[in-house]
Amino acid sequence: MKPRYVKFDAAFEKRFKKYTAQMSEAERRRLKKRLEIFKEDVFDKRLKTHKLKGELAEYYAFSISYSDRIVFKILDNEGVYLMEIGGHDVCY
Asked: Which fold has domain 5-85?
């Protein structure tokens, strides 16, 4: 699924900036590449996109690295809303 649009709020943007400030240049390049892939196809196998369970059952996540992910929600089969970034202990 190629999203027609990607939304996020100011809180996500703040967490994103804090998250990327702690990264090396190589890690930033990898994140940028992952986001480019995500914009083309949210279910690309390289992202390991998966539906979450439990209280987060209406959300999905894709891998940034072995330990980190971005949590998002599919809005209407045309767009996505980025919710959270970080390790697996992050929840919305």
From this structure: YaeB-like fold (3.30.2310)
